[in-house]
Specification:
Blueprint lengths: L3 H17 L4 H16 L3 H12 L6 H14 L2 H13 L5 H17 L2 H18 L4 H11 L2 H4 L4 H9 L5 H7 L1 H22 L9 H27 L4 H20 L7 H31 L2 H12 L3 H16 L4 H19 L4 H15 L7 H10 L3 H7 L1 H16 L1 H11 L3
Helix pairs in contact: 1-2, 2-15, 3-15, 4-14, 4-15, 5-6, 5-13, 6-7, 6-8, 6-12, 6-13, 7-8, 7-20, 8-20, 8-21, 10-18, 11-23, 12-22, 13-14, 15-18, 16-18, 17-18, 17-19, 18-19, 19-22, 22-23
C-alpha cells in the first residue's frame, strides 16, 4: 500500500522542484499531480475528471466577461478619461499628479479588477507625464505600481470569483461589497503618504479646470464608471447573478467604446478578443490544474496537517493571524496571485474560518490584499515588472522607492485582519446572511 506521507512529499517536493526550474505554474501543478497519482496508483482518468470538474462551473463564466469588458474599456480611452476626471478632483493639491495616479487607479480598478491592466493602462499615460513635470522616475513607478493593488480588492474582481470557488461557494456579492471600504481605505492611505512626500520633496501642483471643462470631463468619465455600477447594482439588487451582470457590463462597454467614445475602429475588436482569449486560456487552464492539485491535497489530508501544525505553534488568534499573513506575504513574493488563491485557500480556510472563527468574506479580502502586495514585490511581482518596463528603470530602484508605500499597505492589511467591521460593515448592511 502506498505510503501517504511519502506521497505528500512527492506532491509538494515535485511542485517545489518544478517551480525552482521555472516551469510554468499550470504545468507545475498538473505534472506534480500526475506524478503523485501514479505513485498512489490512482487512475489518471480521475485526475482528468477533477481538472474538467474544476472549470465546469457556471460562476466561472463571469471571468471571460470581466476580462473582455476590461480590455474593451482599456483600449477605448477609458483610462485617459479617468485620469482627466481624477485631475479635476485632486489635481490642484501639492503633488497633484501623484494623487491623480492613486484616484485614477481606484476608479479603473472598479472596472478592470486587474493590477496588471491598471499599471499598463494608467502607467503608460501617467508615468511619462509625471516624469515630464519633474517627479523622479522611481517615485512615479512606485506610486503607479502600489496604487494598482486597489484593483484587486475594489469590486468587481475576477480573483474574488476564483476565491469564492476555492472556498466552496462564498457569496460573490458579499465579497464584492466587502472590498469597498478596504479598497478605498488603501487609496486614501496612499494619497496621504503621497502628500507627505510631495511636501517633503516639493512636488508640483497640477493645473485647474474651468467649470465648463470640469463638467465635460465628468460627463465623459461617468459613462465608463457606469460599467462598475451595472455589475455591482445587478449583483446587490438580485436582478443579475455575477455572471449575468458581467455579461451585461461587457455589452455596455462595447456600446460605449465603439458607438459613444469612438476612439478606436470596430476592427480593433479582433485584437481585444485575441488578448482576452490569451488571458482566459491561462486563467482557466490554471484553475483546471489547481483543482487536481487541490483534490490530492485533500486526499492526503494536508490541510488538516497544516491546521494541526499551525495550532501547535500557538493557540493565540493574534499570533496565528500574524503568521498566516507572513506566510501569504512570503508566498506572494515568489508566486502569482491566482494559483496561490487556489492552492492556499483549501489549506488555510479551515484554520482561519473554522478554527479562529473569521468570516469567509473577511478572510477573502485579507488574502486578496496579501497577495496583491505580492504583485508589487520582487522577484516575481507582475505589476512591478510592468511598471518598471513602462518607467524604464531597474527593479531595485523602484523597490527602494516603494518602501513607504509597502509600510502603508501593511498597516491597512493589519487593520483588515484585526478590525472585522472594516470589511464586514457594508456586506452585513446590504446583504445580511
Amino acid at each position: 500500500m502506498p505510503d501517504l506521507v511519502l506521497a505528500s512529499w512527492i506532491l509538494l517536493g515535485s511542485f517545489a522542484l518544478l517551480l525552482v526550474l521555472k516551469v510554468p505554474i499550470t504545468f507545475t501543478l498538473a505534472m506534480s499531480s500526475i506524478v503523485t497519482a501514479i505513485y498512489l496508483k490512482i487512475p489518471l482518468m480521475a485526475i482528468l475528471q477533477q481538472m474538467v470538474q474544476g472549470v465546469n462551473s457556471f460562476s466561472l463564466l463571469a471571468i471571460p466577461f470581466f476580462i473582455i469588458a476590461g480590455e474593451i474599456m482599456g483600449e477605448g480611452g477609458i483610462s485617459r478619461r479617468l485620469i482627466e476626471f481624477s485631475n479635476v478632483i485632486v489635481g490642484r493639491v501639492r503633488g497633484g499628479l501623484a494623487q491623480v495616479n492613486v484616484l485614477a487607479s481606484m476608479f479603473f480598478g472598479g472596472i478592470s479588477g486587474s493590477a496588471g491592466a491598471d499599471v499598463s493602462s494608467i502607467g503608460t499615460i501617467l508615468i511619462p507625464m509625471m516624469k515630464k513635470q519633474g517627479y523622479k522616475s522611481d517615485f512615479s513607478v512606485a506610486i503607479t505600481v502600489t496604487s494598482a493593488c486597489q484593483g484587486i480588492i475594489i469590486p468587481p474582481s475576477h480573483n474574488m470569483i476564483i476565491y469564492s470557488l476555492a472556498a466552496g461557494g462564498v457569496s460573490v456579492g458579499r465579497l464584492f461589497l466587502g472590498g469597498f471600504i478596504p479598497g478605498v481605505s488603501l487609496g486614501i492611505a496612499l494619497m496621504i503618504v503621497c502628500y507627505i512626500l510631495a511636501v517633503k520633496q516639493n512636488h508640483p501642483r497640477g493645473g485647474s479646470y474651468t467649470w465648463k471643462a470640469a463638467l465635460r470631463v465628468t460627463k465623459e468619465a461617468v459613462l465608463g464608471l457606469i460599467t462598475a455600477v451595472i455589475i455591482m447594482g445587478g449583483v446587490i439588487s438580485g436582478v443579475f447573478t455575477a455572471t449575468e451582470s458581467a455579461a451585461v457590463a461587457c455589452v455596455y462597454a462595447f456600446f460605449v467604446t465603439f458607438f459613444v467614445y469612438r476612439e478606436i475602429p470596430l476592427s480593433r475588436m479582433n485584437k481585444i478578443l485575441y488578448s482576452s482569449l490569451k488571458t482566459l486560456a491561462m486563467v482557466m487552464s490554471l484553475i483546471a490544474a489547481a483543482k487536481a492539485f487541490g483534490w490530492l491535497l485533500a486526499y492526503l489530508r494536508i490541510p488538516a496537517l497544516a491546521t494541526s501544525a499551525l495550532l501547535s505553534v500557538s493557540d493565540n488568534p493574534v499570533i496565528l493571524l500574524l503568521l498566516i499573513n507572513l506566510l501569504l506575504l512570503g508566498l506572494g513574493c515568489i508566486m502569482d496571485m491566482a494559483p496561490l488563491i487556489l492552492i492556499t485557500t483549501p489549506i488555510l480556510f479551515p484554520v482561519v474560518v473554522k478554527t479562529l472563527g473569521m468570516d469567509p468574506v473577511q478572510f477573502g479580502i485579507m488574502m486578496m490584499l496579501n497577495l496583491g502586495i505580492g504583485l508589487c514585490t520582487p522577484p516575481v511581482g507582475s505589476a512591478l515588472f510592468v511598471g518598471c518596463a513602462v518607467g524604464k528603470i531597474p527593479i531595485e530602484e523602484a523597490t527602494r522607492a516603494m518602501i513607504p508605500f509597502y509600510v502603508t499597505m501593511i498597516v491597512v492589511l493589519l487593520l483588515i485582519t484585526f478590525v472585522p467591521q472594516i470589511v464586514m460593515f457594508i456586506p452585513n448592511l446590504v446583504m445580511p446572511q
